Structure formats: structure tokens, C-alpha cells
Amino acid sequence: MSTETRKLDRVVIRFAGDSGDGMQLTGDRFTSEAAAFGNDLATQPNFPAEIRAPQGTLPGVSSFQLHFADYDILTPGDRPDVLVAMNPAALKANVVDLPDGGILIVNTDEFTKRNLTKVGYDSNPLEDESLAKFQVHKVAMATLTIGALEDTGLGKKDAERAKNMFALGLLSWMYHRPTEGTERFLREKFAKKPDIAEANVLAFRAGWNYGETTEAFAVTYEVAPAKLNVGTYRQITGNTATAYGIVAAAQRSKLPVVLGTYPITPASDILHELSKHKNFDITTVQAEDEIAGIGIALGASYGGALGVTSTSGPGIALKSETIGLAVMTELPLLVIDVQRGGPSTGLPTKTEQADLLQAMFGRNGESPVPIVAPQSPSDCFDAVLDAARIALKYRTPVLFLSDGAVANGSEPWLIPDVDSLPDLTVEFATDPETFQPYSRDPETLARPWAVPGTPGLQHRIGGLEKQDVTGNISYDPENHDRMVRLRQAKIDGIEVPDVVVDDPSGEAKVLVVGWGSSYGPIGAAARRVRKLGLPVAHAHLRHLNPFPKNLGEVLRKYDKVVVPEMNLGQLALLLRAKYLVDAVSYTKVQGLPFKAEELQDVLADVIKGVSA
Amino acid sequence: MTAIDLGIPGLAGVPTTDEKQTAKDYKSDQEVRWCPGCGDYVVLNAVQSFLPSLGLKRENIVFVSGIGCSSRFPYYMNTYGMHSIHGRAPAIATGLAVARPDLSVWVVTGDGDALSIGGNHLIHTLRRNVNLKILLFNNRIYGLTKGQYSPTSEEGKVTKSTPLGSLDHPFNPVSLALGAEASFVGRAIDSDKAGLTSVLRQAAEHRGSALVEIYQNCPIFNDGAFDVLKDADEASRRIINVVDGEPIRFGREGEYCVIREGFGLAVAKSADVDASDIVIHDASDLNLSFALSRLSTQDLSHTVTGVFRRADRPTYDDGARAQVSEAKAAKAADLSKLLHGKDTWTVVG
């Protein structure tokens, strides 16, 4: 064998196939291999809203993109260096993203006349010149897999289903990946069906051996481990990190958690995950609807638990009235919104960050609610813990704005020492002598949390306006004015950390401000423009209400402020309104994260404009 | 789900007191602001009078309400209380009941709150059998919004919003609750304090969801809706009060009775039927309870009161707590172990 090995600093691979082809599993396994090898990595699944769209069609294409590198990376990558296409639909839907010279590995077995016609190919692209600008590897994956499994006694159909593991084996060989983890995983996953487990392991090995023994592949690639901070890591998705953050909040507050929720894409995995951890004093209630979900959470909070509800944008719309009740009754409540494309049902499986103004203003009356947004999958853990801190300390509902990109994306996570996590212990009111339902802590303006069962503190709360201090119903004009301002002052006064500006040169005149999941693409774009010799500063907001106290000062330091968002400029609107800053809004709503390269162009243009 | 003991009475887990309580202890310092003559006063009085007999610690009793005239109820009770939002009280109370086994949780709601805007929560709470007592004040009208027809108003009801008569077919709340397989369903009339108290007591002692429909007069927007049931003579011919295990007879001298007819029940004169044909009430029989609920007609020519159904089945909140305690017993709450998961790698300096 005369295979050459090339060293690369980073690679982006995209596995694409039919939604029944197991592409998410394939990508997930390759990710685990990369993690075990010590690369830094980031992933982005992309799948249809339909569970099984008609086979072989464009709407049925599911893909998983994985970026791994020998240095710290921020995004799942703009474009794949390698595209694995399991059928014509996957090729057609994804080949536009493959740069010239990119590697294309195609499962030729699916390129039948019927399948080609189904997606509108007049001629077979594997036989005409249309793919000439790529390095194409045609592999009969299904045939080879069936051949490899001939002796197992499995039927053709079952054998053929293991072809995704053949693809994984081939790619694992190409990139010198460790294989033990995958074989162990397959044996565990199919522990109850040992023949299927063995078939998958055989298919995986067949893919590896195919690379090794055929001469089709002249080059293999190595990506060295990344130099990450010292510590123990695992791979984690945003939804899992969110669920773990809630478990941690239960532990650190010593409170039971009650999750009241209704299944909705892309938030359901938080329910699935939390329902597995009842041993941490976590109760999960799958309610009859979104409104009941948050009602159950609020009722539990009233009873002295940490009430949590999880949903996506349409669910927030339904929960609005109960969020208002939580504002009025000043009870802790954690409201998780995993944003997706909207309005209405919108794009359930695609990402967007267009619920910011809904979170900020989407209720009747003056109804201020703190907003916290995670910037990456692993950051969901810290961010949701901080949201819980605010809810418990200030006795308020808190909106946690995750989105489809962070929720389903994954990355390595430096596992924290649990003793270093913040102490969220709360004190319940117990003293009948001093108790007033709406007296306030002078520091936080929070009212006492007096739970039913406490002797002598019997009192009534509700949605009607409260008299200051006593909490009795009051229609007094002066009192209403005072209470509206008190509720606002409580939220405005929440302690949040100052925003940190990343400006390595210290010479930037342009500041790019982002929030939530755009952290990766903005950060990567900023690195790129700096490499071009154009200084740029990046500030990323975790706290959107209240804003960090230093934000106004930070914004005023720069000649121009650029705000990229996956909406039509919602943060830009807030920044302009509050700080009178002439923010340049860059927006895109395609249901996909920004690409670093497009933001690079945007930033470079603004910087050049300022210099000129 | 091994931890569920079906023999648990409704108030198990709620701390009791030996201190003597009176109705006065249950009156809050808030001025009651219902209209003069409102049936809600009578219900409030009955509840305040009956609660002391349960011997519970007052701080372990919670009233949760929605929106509407009746939903002001918690303000007048010197217990814990939440006046929540329209239709959502059963959901909020479910969260409270799941979180706190030591509370006796009551929901106060009306025909609009429970059956219109909150209909979904009501049926799901009943089907889950959450340990809540739901008092549904049915005055067959929207009072707080000043007189529109409600989901229990009779067809053709002329109101501000239906000058040509309403087109809606009304709910029979007892049939609805039984359709959701509620484990306890009762009905009482506001003016009948003894009957109301008896149903309330049985509801309180029942483990699981208890729905009590209370016919309640709105003197402003639907005055006299239940007058025929309040005239002693008329009432004797119309009200069929059922008691578990007893033959269903009514009338001053028991001259009327209930017999089987086809798949349902019918009213007959006791003199015309063999005594063995008179139906004996069995509150554990869902089909019989449902058939009884169909004897009540919207025009009140007959109205069944008492406890239609009382059956033991596992409650949602007991089950939810059992799952948590079993999980705790089976697996230590080791956060560090959870965060590490199965696949970790270590970067050394």
C-alpha cells in the first residue's frame, strides 16, 4: 500500500442520507471517536420535521455535520471538506455546499434510475461531468455491506441497514480514528439483539478494511489532538447540558424540581433527559397542554419547589398569561424556550433567535422578566444554573432562550467540579411576627417565599394588583403605579456580570455584539478578520434583561457597533432604544446558523468603512 | 408503583391538630364582596363551618381558584390561597399537589372557568385522578363579565351576547366528569347546607380528584335559575338524592323511585313497580353513575344530588411521588457521576 498520510489542522465532514439511513447515529459516533482522540469539535445535526418523509426524496434528507480540529474551534464549520452522500437526494441537497476540490464519497447502490428521477436528475451525476470539480469516491456501500454480512444469516434487508456503519468504518480509516469505542457502543446499543450488534460491528470493520485494502484512496488524513485546558471532558449537547444544569440547580438549592411541560420540537429532549433523573428529587409531569405545563410548574413553585417548564416559541405564546401571573405573584419559575423558526409552527427543526422580543415584551401590562441566553451547547449548563439563581434569589420567572442550534449541537465540555458550582440555597419565610406577603428584601426587592404549611403565614396571592407590603387586593391608583415601578426596579436591579469584550489587539474601532448561539460564528468570523489585519472587538451577551451594567459604556467606546442576529434585528432594536447607539443590524433567517465566512465579509466591510 | 396503598383516605399525609377550631378561624380579615343574596355566601359559610370538623392544621389547607365571581373565594378563607388565572386553577393545583403531599388542596371554580376556558384542564385532572377537591359553582351564567350565557346555560338563553337566544347545547357537568372517569363526582344545591356539607365531607375524605357541582344562584344575572328546587313541594318531586347502597326513592313519602329502562334509568312511581325493581345506588359502578347523571335534565324536572361516584383508583400525585422515592432508593443522587456520564477523556498538562 502506498497510501500517503497528510496532516491537517481541521476537517469538516458531513454525513447525509435518507432520514431512515441512520445519519445522526453515524455522525454521533464519529463525534465520539473524535472526542476520545482529543480533538476539539463542534457538531450540527440537520433533519426534517417529518419523522419519515417519503424515502429517497429531498424533504427526507437528514444530515450531520462535524468539525474537528487540533485547536479550539467555535463552530460546526461553514462548509464540509468531505461529503458522504448515501443517496441521490442527499447528494442533490448537499453538494452545493461542497467547495471545489472537496472530497465526495457516494453510495452508488442508491443511484438507480428511479431514485435519480425522484429528485429530478435527468442523468446520473456519477456518470456525467457534473461532479468533475470534486474528488469523487464511488463506493457500492450497500452491496459491500451485504457481502460482508453474508455469513451472518441476516436477511438482505437487515444487512443492508448496516451500511451507515460501513460508511463510518471507511471514514474512521481515512481519518485514523480509534475504533474500540464504536465497537463497544454497538455491542451495548444492541445488547438485546446480539446478531444485529455483530452485523453492525462487521459492517463497521468492512468499511475500515475497504479503505485499507482497495487502492481507491490514495490519501489518509491525521488531525492531531487539540491543546485544550487541563481537565476531564465529555461531549454534550445543549439540551442535555440544560437538563443537567436543572439537576445541578436542584442539588445546589436543595429544592425538589417539578418540570411541567408538553412535548415540542426542539425542546422535548429536556423532558426526556430529566425524566431519567428522578433520583435527584426531580418530578416530571407531561401535561395536557403548554398552559397546564407552566401552571403545574408555578403551582409547584408556590409549594416551595423549583418549578420549571420547557418549550419552544409557540409554547411560550401559550404560556404568556401564566408567566404574567408569576410576575404578579413574584414566585420563582424557570421558563426554557428552545427557539425554532417562526412565526406560528414555522420551521420546527430549524434554528432561529426570533423570540427575544416575545420574551422581553410578550405579555399584557408592564411585565418585566429576566432573560438569559446560552452561547454554546456546553454553556447551557452554566447559563441555566444562572437563570435558576436569578429565579430563586429574586422570586421571578426567568426566560432561558436556547435555540435549535445549541440544543442539538454538541461540543466537548470541561466537566466542572460540583463543589465549585454556585450555592443556590434559599430561605423560606417562617416568622409570623414580621411576615408581610409583599414586604421586600431591601437589596434584591424580592418578596418573602412563604410556602403553604408554614404556621401563622396563611395569606392569599393572585393575579389582581397587590397592595404594597400587605399583598391585599388594591385598586388604588397610586399603589398600582408604585407596584408597577417596584416590579420593574426589581428586575432592573438584578446582579449580572459585566460583559467581557474580546479585543486581542486593543485597537478595534468596530464592536460586534451578539447573543445566544451566534457566539461561535461571530467568534470565528472575528478571528478571521483579525488574521486579515483588521482589528475587531466581540462582546457576547448572556444577559439580555437586564443588560450588564457596563454595556452602555462598552457600546460608546466604538465607532461602529455591528449586531448579527438570526432574526430581523431584535437585539439591535433594544440596544438602539436603550443606549441610543446607531447599531448596524445584520440579519438572516434561513433556519440555519450563520456561516463564519459571511460574517467575516460583513465585519470586514464595516471595519474598512470606518477606517476609510 | 408499589408504594400506593389504595386504602389511604383522602387526607392521609396532611397534619392534624387537636386544637379546637371554629368556622370563625377560617374567616379571613377581608370583606366579602359578592352581591347581596349571592349563593356564594351560603357555600362559603358551609365550607367554613365544615372544615373545622376535619381537624386539619389550617396552614396545610390551600384554596386555588381561577377567574370569575366564585374564584374570589380564597380571599375570604383564612388558609393559604391563590386566585390564579382563568381556567387554569386545576393545573396550578396539580403542581402544588404533586409537590406537597402534606396539603389538602381545594379548587374553587365556576361554570365558565371550569367548563369553558378551563375545560381541558378539568377533564385531564379528573382522568389523572390528582388528589384535589374541585368545587364547581354552577350558576349557568357569566356573572363577573355581567351576564353572558355560559356552557351550562339552557339552549335559547337570551342574554346580552345572545339577544336572539343562545345556540349552544349545554354541558351536564356530572356527565362530563364521569366521562373523564372521575373517581368522585357529587352534586349539591347551595341552599341545602346539610346536603352540601355531606357531599363536601365525602369529597374531602376521598383520595383522588373529587368534583362537586354546586347549583348556585346568581341574583343579578340569572336570578331564580334553581327556584324550582328550592320550593319544598316542587323539590320533593324533582330532587333525587342518592346514597350509596340504598334504593333510590324520592318524594315526600318515597313515592317516586328510579328503575332500569333499556340501557339507562327512568323515574317511576314506587307504587307501580315491584320493590325489587328499584335501583340500589352503587357509587363504584361507573355505568350506573353515568346513567344517574342522565336523569338530570336542563329544565330541572329531575335533578340528582348526592354522591354519584366514589371509586378507588391510584392517584397521579401518589404515583409521581412513588416514582421519585423509588428512584432515590435505587440510585444515589451523585451529581458528579451524572455529569461525567459514560464517555470522558482527560487532558493533562
Automatic annotation (TrEMBL), chain A:
The keyword Oxidoreductase applies. Keywords: Oxidoreductase. Coiled coil: none annotated. Residues 508-572 form the Pyruvate:ferredoxin oxidoreductase core domain. Residues 20-207 form the Pyruvate/ketoisovalerate oxidoreductase catalytic domain. Pfam families: PFOR_II, POR, POR_N. The keyword Oxidoreductase applies. It comes from the Bacteria. Residues 257-468 form the Pyruvate flavodoxin/ferredoxin oxidoreductase pyrimidine binding domain. InterPro entries: 2-oxoacid/accept_OxRdtase_asu, PFOR_II, Pyruvate:ferred/Flavod_OxRd, Pyrv/ketoisovalerate_OxRed_cat, Pyrv_Fd/Flavodoxin_OxRdtase_N, Pyrv_flavodox_OxRed_cen, THDP-binding, Transketo_C/PFOR_II. This is 2-oxoglutarate ferredoxin oxidoreductase subunit alpha.
Automatic annotation (TrEMBL), chain B:
It holds the Pfam family TPP_enzyme_C. Residues 67-214 form the Thiamine pyrophosphate enzyme TPP-binding domain. SUPFAM superfamilies: Thiamin diphosphate-binding fold (THDP-binding). Keywords: Oxidoreductase. InterPro entries: 2-oxoacid:Fd_oxidoreductase, THDP-binding, TPP_enzyme_TPP-bd. The keyword Translocase does not apply. It comes from the Bacteria. PANTHER family: 2-OXOGLUTARATE OXIDOREDUCTASE SUBUNIT KORB, 2-OXOGLUTARATE OXIDOREDUCTASE SUBUNIT KORB-RELATED. This is 2-oxoglutarate ferredoxin oxidoreductase subunit beta. It comes from Lentzea flava.
